[in-house]
Amino acid sequence: MFLLDEIRQKTFVLIGPRASGLMFHGPLWSYLNYPGFVIGGGNPVFVGWYWIFLIIVFLVAGYVIAKRLFNKITATLFVLMASLYLAFHANSLSNPNGGMFAIPFFFFFFIRYIQTLRIRFLIFHIVTAAAMVQFQIAMGVPFLFLSVLFTTVFVIKKRKANHILAYALVPLLLGNFIVFDIRHEFLIAKNAFRHLGTIDSNVTMWDLVVDRARNILTGMEFLRFGPPNGQTYAIIIFFVFITIQIKNNIHRGIYLVFLYFFFGFFVLSLANRFPLLSFYVFPLHPFVFLMFASFITSPHKRVFVCIFTVIYVLNLVGIYNYINDLNHFIGKNQYSWKAVFTAASTIYQDDEKEFGYFIYSPDILGYGPRYAMEYAKKVYDKNGFGYQKKPITYLLIEPPARDNPFTSEEKWKLYQIHIYSTPVMVKTFDNGYKVEKHLLNAGEIVVPFDPGINPGLHYR
Length: 460
What we know:
The protein is of the alpha/beta class and about 450 residues long. It has helices at about 1-10, 30-40, 45-70, 70-85, 95-115, 120-135, 135-155, 170-175, 175-185, 185-195, 205-220, 230-245, 250-270, 280, 285-295, 300-325, 335-350, 365-380, 410-415, 440-445; strands at about 20, 25, 355-360, 385, 390-395, 425-430, 435-440. The strands form 2 sheets. Strands 4-3-5-7-6 form a 5-stranded mixed sheet, with helices on one face. Strands 1-2 form a two-stranded antiparallel ribbon.
């Protein structure tokens, strides 16, 4: 939400969310979400409904892509499977989901290009490849590299070497990174090389290979509910069906290209000498589900329908359980927007028209409660001054960190914001948040506080 508000303030931004290794993703995910932010007046709930709209657009496009690559039944099965899977993501989309949305287009245009040799399909493919980089660097860069490698060999073989010039679009499509780096002494490039050159001394190359194999065998999320090792059984069945399809020359070229990109991604990921994080991998899932749905074209379609039905029913049970769990999360967990906004609203619902406030967060950043206070200011039309001492000053305090002796609300109050008075009001919420109201005299107000408690977005 702060990144979206940054676009409101600046209009044009060069970078998006932070990435691993002190790098940044592109701003495309922020711009894609910006209409929801503007129309909803900065309300996160409206942005959440906007995510539902994005998911619907993706499913409609996915249907068209699956139908053109395979047939109507494949398209229907893909939408059934992808929509159920996205139900688990719908309340918390982030920039890797942008890569998830882009990858079917990336694959479709690539297949169309190698089938037709029409340059426009290659251009569309390159555009979607660049979009994947903008959304999620750790996913997009390997796929772009694999695309360049395959296309180079392919066009030479087809005597269309001039088509490789289409990749000259890449620097233009990723120009925001280039401009940012030029302006900031090649910050992203330096951090990228530093990150790739960093090695955990406790992790061997074999450990990394095992990690990638484990991600393939257990991380594809065919099942969100089911028997132990269900993911492993599902991915084995998946590769058995692909083998059958290739052996029977049914969509053989499509499956071979899929395998090239799928396994190529995990091979190239070894350049990152750390275990893969989940958000590097989950954008691949619709890519896998698209191939899975296409097995309806197999000679063993009846067996596949039975398998698909079992997986779908188990996931229906999973989504039922997930929704029930959300009933214990919404408004009750400290990471629920409803919970943090309720705590912030308590401050603005008090009688004062003007007050100062500070926010304590064990992770220092405290983006959730900070945005809740800023949005509540719009809703209640009162003057709340963040990180300023006023005669009436509120403290919004997050639940304490577990097993962290270096931070606590007591240390924060005494040694960072230097408020020593006893609060005149304390309200504690079921989710662990706490609100304190302090009446400060002139001497207490002029005592300076540590500016480091409000990092804001200075790193940008």
